[in-house]
Structures are given as structure tokens and as C-alpha cells.
Amino acid sequence: MDAVSDNSEKREDHTHPASSIVHSYDVDVSAQLIAGTDSSLTPQQASRLRAKIDWHIMPFMCIMYLITFMDKTTLSEAAVLGILEDAHLSANQYDWLGTIFYLSYLVFQYPQNLALQRFPVGKWMSINIFLWAVVLLCHAACKSFGSLLAVRFLLGMCEGAITPGFMIVTSMFYTHAEKTRRVGYWFLMNGFAVIILGFISFGLLHTHTASFMPWQWLMIITGTITLITSVFFWFFFPDSPTTARFLTPQERVAAIRRIQANQSGIENKHFKKEQFLETIKDPKTWVMAFFAGSANIVNSLTNQRQLIVAQFGFSEIQTTLLGCVDGVVEILTIWLGVVLATQPFIGRSYAGVLMYIPAILGSILVSTLPFSNKIGLLFSYWISIFAIAPFTIFLGWVSSITSGHTKRITTNGIVLCSYAIGNAVSQFMWKAQYQPRNHVPWAVISSCNFAAGIALLVLRFMLASENRKRERETPDGKHDVVYIMDESGVEKRVDKAFLDLTDKQNSDFRYVL
Questions:
Q1: How far apart are CA 341 and CA 393, in angstroms?
Q2: What is the pTM of this model?
Q3: Which sign does the torsion angle of CA 125, 128, 134, 136 carry?
Q4: Distance separating alpha carbons of residues 184 and 205, to the nearest angstrom
Q5: Which residues pair with 492 in a beta bridge?
Q6: pLDDT tens digit sequence for 494-506
């Protein structure tokens, strides 16, 4: 009798003029799972579930991002391990090896994002990680500029799936309040990668084999570690909360309910042209793209840092060990940045600007201190690393201010294409004629950091203005009563959070500041 009453009640609701039925094709993948349910979580239940998700996801993301960055920066370490002499590389050719990686990343970035929407996220990333490992192992066989250029191109193609994949997974499992710290946790693994790679390189400097150079051993070691990790990633990393094997059926529903307040759902596997066009026309997309490009000019230090420190007057052994300190500074600055960003009275934009202040000071001091003061130059260089933190904060912010899965993957694609452009063009600043002081590159870095800080303030102003406008408006109620039909033909009501609406379509969406 109760079941009959429930069904009739649903039919009555559906006859309301403001109600509608949507196809499962159009809504979030979690809609069928959660439609018709009305369960709520206590704070204690939500906390326990978050802890379980953390234990099953964060170790994989942290380890994988560590390995990814370690592999990407092998070129920097190889510079002091003999690759320049062994492969007969000029300074310009070495710069091109850094640039081609990001040009490939740029070309394949949006196709990678489309693939991440179409295929299971975890599996697609696993395939790319496996191919990445194979390509890295092939580096050891390369003894010319042409062959190294080819493998670096392939490396950039595969790496294009990792950061957007992690951004998608983080937005699937975590609330807006949790994303910034989670992104910070896996991004600060870059610092640990620098430390580990520094010690590996230090050991390889003392390795002497007749026909195998230390830089080739570096490629073999890092490639093998990545290959093993890709297998574990395939079998144990989840694609979505709706299919995560480490969650029970009840916990999957709870995990989806837990992030309902995000008003952005989990994912939709179908490309929507109208969401793509909305992204292109949205002014904040291009402010974010400008920030991503200008904020990553400083990232050219990834490939140049060993050469820069060596030019300060340190030996190869000293340069390799001092490189480990780079990693420590990066860890501390990213941690500080995300802590500041999660303070309600500071927020993402202001935290990024605060981190740029010492970074700009450091880059100015590197260029202006006497070149005989190598300790002062070294510490100024380390202070300039503060500029890495704002982009980390930004990556956790992007999915909190964008909704609609096609819009989200398109935004990710545009932002990371801009990231690739910034990284690619910045490699050419470090010309031989500017060495050893490198006044021009450091001036460019200082200017771009300042511009990136302004972009963060502009973005915050735009989002805050839109939030105030929405608070004044009367909700239209257009998507308040929506149903989907399950496999048995029963209509079930779906909350608008799981209708795959964009942030502009959903009047309940509020931009996180």
C-alpha cells in the first residue's frame, strides 16, 4: 500500500507545470544511483567516509604525482649527469628538449580531456602512465638531439592525462572546502620528487660503468618505478564514486550525497556542445587561462635550476645535493599556501597574492645581488620558489568555480593548454648570452608573477560580483522539479545538483572565493 501511495505521489508531483522528465543521457552518472533517495549523513558518518576515501585515493595520487614530476625533471638532473656531452647537445638544443615536452602537452591536452570524459578516468590514466614509463625507458637508448626530441614529444603527450585526471577525481570525491588541501597534498609531492631525484643523482655521480652513462641509469631507474606503479594504478585506483570497489553500495550513495553541496555532480560521459560554447564565451575562462600562462613562466626553473645553481659557483656534487633543498622549500611553500587558502578570512585569491610577494622579492634579489655573494643568490633563488604555490591553490579552485562536466573538462583543457604555453615559451628565456647573471629571465619571471597576482584579484572580483548578483535575484525554479525514469519505468526525482547543469544554468551555484 505504501509503495502504491509513493508512486501516485510521484505522478502527482510530476503533473506540476514546473516539472519535467530528462533522459539519463543528459544528467550526471550518479543520478540513477541517487534518484529517489533522501538519505542524509551525520557529521560523524561524513568524517568516517572521508577518512576511508582519503586512505584509498590519496596515497595513489600522491605517489603517482611524485613519480610523474620525478620523471618530468629527469632532464634537469641529466644535465649534470653527462647528457649534454654524451648526446652532443648545445644550450639551444637542451632548451628545445624542455620546450617540445610542453608543445606536445599543449597539442594533446584537449584530446586527453575528451578521453577522460569518454572513458573511465582511472583506466585512461593508467594506460598513459604505462606508455609514459615505456617512453622514459627509451630515453636511455637515445644518443642524439633528434632521438631525444622524439621521446620528449611522446612524454608530453602521455603526461597530458595526469593533472586533468587528478583534478576530475578530486572534484568527484571531495567537497569544495576539502579540494584545496587535497590538491595541495598531491601537488607538493613535486618537492619530494626533487629530493628523491637529487639523492638518486648523487649516487649515480659515483657510478662508473664502461658503456652506460649515469644519466642513462637515471632513465632506467625512474622508468622502471613508473612501469610498476602503472600496474597497481590500473587495478586499484577508482574511476568514480559510483563504481569504486573499496566502497559498499550504501557508501557509494553516501559519497555522492556528501558532495551534493558542491552543486556540480560527479561526471557526465557525453560531450555537450552548448556547454563547450558557454565555456568559450565565459570571461572568467580567459582570466583563468591568462593566470595559468603567466603563473607558469617561473616553471622554467624546473629544467634550468641545476644549471642556475652551478653558475652561482657550486660544484656538480654540491649542485646535486643543494637541489634537494629546492624540494624542501617547495613542500613548505605549497603547504603554507594551501593552509592560507583554506582560511575563510583569506581565501584562494588573497592566499595566492600573499605567496607572490616573497617570490617577486626573491627573483629581484637574484638579479641584483653581487655575483660574488653566492650564498645570498642561493637563498634568493629559494625564496623565488614561493611562486609555485599560487598555481597549486588555483588547481584546487578551478573545479570549485566551474560546473557542468563538459564545461569542466573544457575549462581544464584551456587552463592546462595555457599552462603548457607558459612552460614552453619560458624555456627560451635562458639564452647563453644572458648567462651567468640571467638578468632578462629573472626580470620576465618577476613581471609575470606580478601579472598573475593581478589576475587572481580580477578573478575574485568577478566571482564575488556574480555571487552578490545571484543573492539579489529571485530563483526561477526551472530545475527544481525534475525526474528521470529508472530501468523499471518508475519516475524518480533528481536534485538539481545531479542534472549536469553549468554554473551559469544552476541558480543555486555559488562561486567559492
A1: 7
A2: 0.88
A3: negative
A4: 32
A5: 484
A6: 777 788 889 998 8
